[in-house]
TrEMBL record:
Gene3D superfamilies named in the record: Winged helix-like DNA-binding domain superfamily/Winged helix DNA-binding domain
PROSITE patterns: HTH_ARSR_2
Keywords: DNA-binding, Transcription, Transcription regulation
Pfam families the record matches: HTH_20
Domain HTH arsR-type: 13-107
Protein species of origin: Streptomyces camelliae
Annotated TM spans: none
Key word Methyltransferase present: no
Lineage per the UniProt record: Bacteria, Bacillati, Actinomycetota, Actinomycetes, Kitasatosporales
The protein, known as: Helix-turn-helix domain-containing protein
Length: 118
């Protein structure tokens, strides 16, 4: 499944029925990707890639967003020249009930415990 924005650029996304638990868990296993998901979950809105202050290079940031998109954790669409990101919460919650909320809660507890700011 792909989304075509007004610019005509399409980004590939797995269809809902193609989402796999292994791919989602792999995507969320990286601290930077988990940080992106936590910010999307907290904001509950579309955010541009530049809205995230990640301590990595632009190419590494692009890689992290691609892994999240290709695993089905986020949806990305172009709005003009901006690439917008949104959490696929409904798909994840329906296919893997409680998973996202549990991971987000565990990440919050870990941040408090370790003070790692992730």
């Amino acid at each position: 499944m792909t989304d075509i924005a007004t610019t005509g650029r399409a980004l590939p996304h797995p269809a809902r029925e193609e989402l796999r638990l292994e791919a989602v868990l792999h995507a969320l296993s990286d601290p930077m990707r988990l940080r992106i998901v936590r910010e999307l979950a907290a904001d509950e809105a579309e955010l541009t890639c530049s809205d995230f202050a990640l301590p990595v290079t632009k190419s590494t940031s692009t890689h992290h967003f691609r892994v999240l998109r290709e695993s089905g954790v986020i949806r990305q669409v172009y709005r003009g020249t901006a690439k917008m990101n949104v959490l696929r919460r409904d798909d994840l919650d329906d296919l893997f009930p409680g998973l996202l909320d549990s991971l987000l809660a565990a990440a919050e507890l870990q941040t408090r415990r370790l003070g790692d700011g992730a």
